[in-house]
From TrEMBL:
It comes from Lentzea tibetensis. Gamma-L-glutamyl-L-cysteine binds at R83, S84, K85, R86, D412, R416. Its EC number is 1.14.99.50. Residues 12-143 form the DinB-like domain. This is Hercynine oxygenase. Belongs to the EgtB family. The keyword Iron applies.
Length: 430
């Protein structure tokens, strides 16, 4: 059992490193060290930060080994310097960074071979290794967002996602009742997903699929960006201040729209979920459509609740890990898949594409669940609890399967658009 777990960890570590290497080898040294947007770190910072977190947790803490490079800790501490300040720090160069992350990884494989995976909560079920795998995959998604912001010739390639299919209903009714939200058993679930607890949810309707580009274009054509009545007070202020007119990366082309995807400008694909909208835009669209955003509990119930058994599943399709037939994850494709592309991933109630494609904005602020306990450190999620952040669910085409579950919670500021975020709507059932 332990041997199987160690092999599983090793495979996951290798998968995440292959992705980090692909994302950083795809560009030249100049593009590695420069800042492509004030919102993002230089790619070389993300890579060294991945190595530094791995060193702190797995080499020094779990392994009890000597530091590899204690002198650089502060430059790669995400809480010490904001993203906009990072380019001015005495960061490791590309060659040094690659050497550093490789040295750390070598020690980690040695620790993985020797450390007992018991006796401490941090190592039970190889949790600390799982946390570091997820951390690297999360930064890989961040680096993918940096690639989308980068200006220049395209450097990333991937096959197109599967074709869409007609989705027969526009909405699904989720009946009233209690369901189990969160988890106490998923071994690599992070502190904010715990513990499992019952939540009563009133009956509601939820969109069968995420809102598409064509639907979003109708909102724009209906004057959605000029009609204050659809926006919250805060949302309208932001809409005016930031001069929002359309999702990020959209531009007018004749009477329609084009958008730029990883350096390629193309006509908008009508039945693809809209991406790169902020929370305020999602909220305004929903109001225009006579609906609202789902709460986090509603989203999770739609994704996990199995009315036949009354239990909550790990994923909409069941308990088995995602396969390429279930969901558009892991940067296998460089875009969300059209609506109806994943019939095998549908939830028991008939809701499509909850996992993968686009992160989905919810109406909920980010808070700890009843009985929340910090583990293993408050900076993972506790310091973000409060009304500043909105919760996003489900992962995007750029999220790895190791870094998303139906219980997984992401959070961001309601103005953010560089992330791969879209949404679906809900409404009360009367
Ligand atoms: Fe980080």
């Amino acid at each position: 059992m332990t041997e199987q777990l160690r092999e599983h960890v090793a495979r996951q570590l290798e998968r995440s490193r292959a992705r980090s290497t692909q994302l950083t080898d795809a560009v030249d040294e100049h593009d590695l060290v420069r800042q492509h947007s004030k919102l993002m770190s230089p790619l070389v910072w993300d890579l060294a930060h991945i190595g530094n977190q791995e060193e702190l947790w797995l080499v020094r803490d779990v392994g009890g080994r000597e530091p590899v490079r204690q002198d650089i800790d502060e430059y790669y501490d995400a809480f010490k310097f904001s993203r906009s300040k990072r380019p001015e720090l005495p960061l490791l160069g590309p060659k040094e960074t690659r050497q550093y992350v490789g040295d750390v990884r070598g020690k980690v494989f040695d620790v993985l071979e020797k450390v007992p995976l018991e006796g401490r909560r941090l190592v039970e079920n190889a949790f600390a290794f799982g946390m570091i795998v997820q951390h690297e995959q999360q930064h890989d998604e961040t680096m993918l967002a940096t690639h989308q912001l980068r200006v220049g010739d395209p450097v990333l390639q991937a096959p197109p996602p599967p074709a869409g299919n007609a989705v027969l209903t526009t909405e699904v009714l989720v009946p009233a009742g209690s369901f189990e939200m969160g988890t106490s058993t998923e071994p690599w679930a992070l502190d904010n997903e715990r513990p499992a607890h019952p939540v009563h949810v009133k009956a509601f309707h939820i969109d069968t699929a995420p809102v598409t580009n064509a639907e979003y274009a109708e909102f724009i054509a209906a004057g959605g960006y000029d009609r204050e009545e659809f926006w919250s007070a805060e949302g309208w202020m932001h809409r005016l201040h930031s001069k929002l007119r359309a999702p990020r990366f959209w531009q007018r082309e004749g009477s329609g729209w084009a958008r730029t995807v990883f350096g390629v400008t193309e006509a908008l694909v009508p039945n693809e979920p809209v991406v790169h909208v902020c929370f305020f835009e999602a909220e305004a669209y929903a109001k225009w459509a006579g609906k609202r955003l789902p709460t986090e509990a509603e989203w999770e119930k739609a994704a996990r609740h199995d009315p036949a058994t009354g239990r909550s599943r790990r994923y909409p399709w069941g308990d088995e890990d995602p396969t390429p037939q279930h969901a558009n994850l892991g940067q296998r494709h460089l875009r969300p898949a059209p609506v109806g592309a994943y019939p095998a991933g549908v939830s028991p109630l008939g809701v499509h594409q909850l996992i993968g494609d686009v992160w989905e904005w919810t109406a909920s602020d980010f808070h700890g669940y009843p009985g929340f306990e910090v583990f293993p450190y408050p900076e993972y999620s506790k310091v973000f609890f409060g009304s500043d952040y909105k919760v996003l669910r489900g992962g995007s085409f750029g999220t790895d399967e190791a870094a998303v579950r139906s219980t997984f919670r992401n959070w961001d500021y309601p103005i953010r658009r560089q992330i791969f975020a879209g949404f679906r709507c809900a409404r009360d059932a009367f």
